[in-house]
Amino acid sequence: MGRWKVPENLWMRPERSARGPQPSFSRAALTEAAVRVADAEGLEAISMRRLAAEIGAGTMSLYRYVSGKDDVIELMVDSVVAQYLPEDAVISGDWKADLGALARRARRTMLRHPWLAPLAANRQGASPNRLRLLEASLRMVDGLGLGVDEMLTLIGAVFAYVNGFVQSELAEAEALRRTGLDLKEWTALQAPFMMAVIASGDHPMIARMATEGGRAYADIEERFEYGLERVLDGIEARLPESDG
After folding, report:
1. How far apart are CA 13 and CA 16, in angstroms?
2. Does 229 fall in a domain?
3. 46, 127, 128, 240: which one has the fewest Cβ atoms less than 10 Å from its Cβ?
4. Residues 118, 169: one domain?
């Protein structure tokens, strides 16, 4: 069996074909329409026919700009990732403050665009805004006495925390939409079985959680900040000692 042929990077291809009539729209317009549809209806609503209708073009004309839906998704992700690091974002030189601010912007972006979080956890291709984000992220932690692989690992740890937290938020929102029950109401339904398990005496930590717990109902922003601080503090604790 032959190896799968890796397609050429989208950004290496000209936006418009040199052959045939020149279309009257742009990749930017196509991307904007795709993001709008995905925000409202999810990625499954994206199709070449739907996008053509959104921008008032013939379906086949879209293929002068992109080779298919995968290219559209690449354009969408690159466009939205730009919101992680707006052009006017200030990098202070305090790596914890800068990474923390980046993490908060990433979370807000993923919550505005719920389709993004699963894609952000996948293998990341090279694209203009992704590379701009990577460059800035590496600059934030440059000078800490770390090699590039170590810098990439700690940046990845911060983004993994953000991505996991956001996916939990989105899952909870979907559960609320599907069942009509908030977390407290859903937990109350589990109480009879939980109490039976606790009464057996075989799960002392579950019993302790039931009597002492409560962070599940704490403010979501506080929970995010608490975890983010622990991640950044953990990174700081393992940094090489400065000679100064």
Report:
1. 8
2. yes
3. 240
4. yes
